[in-house]
Amino acid sequence: MTPRELLGVAEVPGGAPLRLVRHGRDFMIMLERNELMSSRMSGSEAALGKLTCERMVVRPATRILIGGYGMGFTLRAVLEGIADDAKIIVAELVPEIIDWAREPMQALTGNCLDDHRVEIRIQDVAESIWEGGFDAILLDVDNGPDGLTRAANNRLYSAHGLAIARAALRPGGVLAIWSAASDAAFKRRLTRSGFVVEELHVHARTNGKGPIHYIWFAKAC
User: pLDDT per position in the chain (221 positions), as tens?
Assistant: First the structure.
């Protein structure tokens, strides 16, 4: 049996440490015993990026905010779906996540971090949302609409946080949120916040297999 190899540990402000683990050719980012993400199950993260691009209003100089780099599957999917004059801001709270992307997972990362359309910010995505003027905001900073990684993330999914996100979107903009599980209460909160909500169920693997994950696409009414 192939043993797991610990490649790095990263401190999360206000949360438990993250661990980067390699198992054969696969990488996993762990939070305690929870597998937050894996290179074996990239389908739903890529779908988050691809399907958001399909739902945005097409306009010159598109601006997109991605909350959480993860393993970059969402970013790479967005890069494939937008024009050359678009701008993508990736807000990643934990600097080691970007270090891991550039070093042990460089073969997986490719050149997406150095694409001229991409700006990496080491900051809480909530700070970037306040900037406003986005055509899409994509959130994948937890396993769903709760602060699993850090309690402070709960504010993103509160009624107040959703109101801020709605105000930060340009006309026709999309708020897209990834989740490992369904959450009927959160879907209702999105609707009460003035969004028209679409919920999709997406397989975790690119081959259409594996666990079912959830993506909510919310547009302002």
Answer: 778 899 999 999 888 899 999 999 999 999 888 888 999 989 999 999 999 999 999 899 999 999 999 999 999 999 999 999 999 999 999 999 999 999 999 999 999 999 999 999 999 999 999 999 999 999 998 777 875 565 667 889 999 999 999 999 999 999 999 998 899 999 999 999 999 999 999 998 888 788 899 999 999 87
Residue ranges of domains in the chain, CATH in brackets? 41-220 (3.40.50.150)
Cα gap 49→65, rounded to integer Å? 11
**End-to-end distance of the chain based on CA atoms, in angstroms?**
53
Alpha-carbon radius of gyration of the chain: 16
Residue 107, Cβ density class (10 Å: 0-12 exposed, 13-18 middle, ≥19 buried): exposed
CB atoms closer than 10 angstroms to residue 77: 22
CA–CA distance, 68 with 92 (Å, rounded to integer) = 5
Q: Dmax of the chain from CA atoms?
A: 53
Distances in Å between the Cα of 95 and the Cα atoms of 12, 14, 167, 192 are 9, 15, 28, 35
Instruction: Provide the whole-model pTM.
Output: 0.94
CB within 8 Å of 101: residues ≥ 6 apart? 69, 71, 72, 108, 109, 113
Q: Are 58 and 43 in contact (CB under 8 A)?
A: no
Cα–Cα nearest to 49, from 125, 166, 140: 140
